[in-house]
Amino acid sequence: MSRSTDAAPARFTARVRERTQVSPHMVRLYFDGPGLAGFCSTGVPDERLHLYLPEAQADPEEVIDRFRASTARSPERELPLARRSYTVQDWDPDTGVLAIDFAEHRGGAVTEWLRRARPGAPVGLSAASGWYAPPEGTTWQLLVSDMTGLPALGRILDGLGDGARVHVVTEVPTDDDDPGLPGASGVTHRRLVGSGNGRAPSRLTAAATSWEPPDGPGYVWCAAEAATCQEIKAALREHPGQVGASEIRAYWRAGRER
User: Fold this and answer.
1) In whole angstroms, what is the distance from residue 175 CA to residue 126 CA?
2) pTM, two decimal places
3) Which of 222, 219, 212 is nearest to 245 (CA)?
4) Coil, strand or helix at 55
5) What does the alpha-carbon distance between residue 251 and residue 84 come to, in Å, rounded to a whole number?
6) Which residues neighbour 203 within 8 Å (Cβ) at sequence distance 6 or greater?
7) How many CA within 13 A on the CB side of residue 92?
8) Which H/E stretch holds residue 65?
9) DSSP annotation string for 197-251
10) Mean pLDDT (whole number) for 161-172
11) Percent over 70 (pLDDT), the chain
């Protein structure tokens, strides 16, 4: 028997529980509520979900009620919702609390929503899925991230065992945005400050591609701005023998409202 492809995807609702300013350019929101019943983590460290945020002119309670009842695969097309992808920073199944970090940009639907979001504000969510998957036999990893990828990067580093050969390159707008990433023996870290935030050109590509990897099959993971991701992909194509596999994801696009 063939499976139908028309079934609506898993859909959840939640409410803002708490807001914390993690750094000058990163806000963490905690969500909870009965609408998260059945939500679960995939365990993949860069797992992301879609957030559905009521637009400013809409009644948020009404819109999220309609979101919950909708059978459309893309409810944002029929409802005043902004849909954006975000990494699951943490999910506690015992308390039913979901944490998501938001890298703050200069404008856009999410920035406006963050300014007015208070405890109790409703949102819609999708199920989570992720991509980070170093192949068996990987001997080294290169992990590259700007502000938007830091929550996923932190989870990746949390899961590494001692002895992993990993080089990390991060880019943050200010010294105060340094996340204090967890590390294990064998992890080196190059931190770039003052660029890559849409105001100053990114230096990630040059820093990432100047690193000399050790021998053996490697794995490259990158989460950054779209143009930077394209540059890193192009650089990797010039050295196919050094990288066994890669996962390079554009988390945002400069010049486009977030």
Assistant:
1) 34
2) 0.91
3) 219
4) coil
5) 10
6) 171, 192, 195, 196
7) 9
8) helix 60-69
9) SSSS---HHHHHHTS---SS-EEEEEEEEHHHHHHHHHHHHT-TTT-SEEEEEEE
10) 88
11) 91
